[in-house]
Amino acid sequence: MAEIPHRSSTTRTVAVIGAGWAGCAAAVELAAAGHIVTLFESSRTLGGRARAVEMQAQLLDNGQHILLGAYTTSLRLLKTVGVATDEALLRLPLQMRYPAGCDGMDFVAPRLPAPLHLIAALLRARGLAGSDKIALARFSSTARWMDWRLDSDCSVSELLQRFDQTERLIKLMWRPLCIAALNTPPERASAQIFLKVLRDSLGAQRAASDMLIPRVDLTALFPQQAATFIKQRGGTIKTGMAIQKIAVSNAGWRVMQNETESDIFDAVVIATPATQAACLLADVTMDVSIPTFDYEPISTCYLQYPAGTRLAAPFYALNDDPDAGCWGQFVFDRGQLNAAQDGLFAVVVSASSTAIELGHDALAAALAAQLASALQMPQLASPLWSRVISEKRATFSCTPALHRPEETTEFPHLVVAGDYLASDYPATLESAARSGVKAAKLLCAHFTLAK
Ligand SMILES: Cc1cc2nc3c(=O)[nH]c(=O)nc-3n(C[C@H](O)[C@H](O)[C@H](O)COP(=O)(O)OP(=O)(O)OC[C@H]3O[C@@H](n4cnc5c(N)ncnc54)[C@H](O)[C@@H]3O)c2cc1C
Fold this sequence. Notes:
This protein is of the alpha+beta class. It has three domains: 13-53 and 216-291 and 405-449, FAD/NAD(P)-binding domain (3-Layer(bba) Sandwich), CATH 3.50.50; 94-209, no CATH class; 295-396, Polyamine Oxidase, Chain A, domain 2, CATH 3.90.660. Helices cover 33% and strands 21% of the residues. The chain contains 15 helices and 20 strands. A hairpin with a 2-residue loop joins strand 11 and strand 12 (252-256). Residues 1-6 have low confidence and may be disordered. The structure holds flavin-adenine dinucleotide.
């Protein structure tokens, strides 16, 4: 049932430009506060870099995503818009599991209160020598003692060296974790941001360290529900509409779709990626404080096998070794998440610039061969079909001491939102969601002051 709000003198009209998770988060927060939101999205599909794409007559994601229990803002927003998170997300304890039979490890945190879950996981871990376990325990206790903070940032590789981490632990645990979380290789990744991610996973209460895998496509998970929530509160969703320009006048903020079509709003949230945000801001200010970032790609390869083809666990880490033609870092058995995807596997290659050079067909063939060998299932070498999606600008390179600006601009009624803004986290759904909420709160605070 539509809940059209009563338009009081405190109700404002707000344009949100960009319907990724940051824009959707800002729009939901503003709509919940009673403001009338128009959400503009240049694509036909909501969700930005975390969206559904149609493939082989089904909706799959533009990239396999994973959330953490520590994603408090994302999880709160999902609940706000009516998502039953227990059904929409498969909740698994923190784990790093390699397929049995390959040179890997099996690390699963049991459902015990922190830090017992970590201690028990360490004691039980298969594939790690005593020296690896001691190094991991030392890392965790030293990082905790340092409150997961560094005086000055350095690379993850340097941090691991300083913490005397063993070669095996780096190969099986730290390197894959760093690439998965920061989408940046340890040699170039920020140790400070890595520590903050670890604080909220390895170092956190058990529920925060849980790994959550979407069972539904990413557009259905949040942006679609957010759109319904916004419309029920008198807002409008405009897809297929790229905003070309914004301008400020006495009447308010003019948001232009082209030379002739525009709308006026009391306030604007620019929730596009950084490059587009800088262009839109340049229309109204000389003082554009958004830096130029370097980017890292992520490739996801979907491989369809006959129905009933199953892994023993919903996902596994894989030994990636590009020199040996093994590019895959994680494999997900989508059939264990969604019955309609029986036999469908998703293989993730983060920081994938060299893998992309192979070309999609050769990469898919290499990943299928890697699965067949790592999982000791020869039939996996010959999928029924395969498809690679490469997002060239998946995330910014999360390098040491990277400057990430704030949501504010010189105008109180113009804010920015996105995963690239100042955050404890690297580019993630959670940094996008937190930024969207922060941008919305800044506007609400200004509206209250201007009453
Ligand atoms: C393949 C892949 C895998 C990932 N895996 C994970 C993961 O496992 N866990 C995790 O937490 N994060 C992951 N991420 C990162 C996460 O997806 C992003 O950090 C997050 O989606 C960014 O959201 P955003 O709203 O800041 O930006 P975006 O999603 O880029 O949204 C910006 C939106 O603005 C729109 N837009 C641009 N210009 C205009 C304009 N002029 N007018 C109107 N609209 C415009 C765009 O179309 C887009 O929809 C992954 C990303 C990728 C690509």
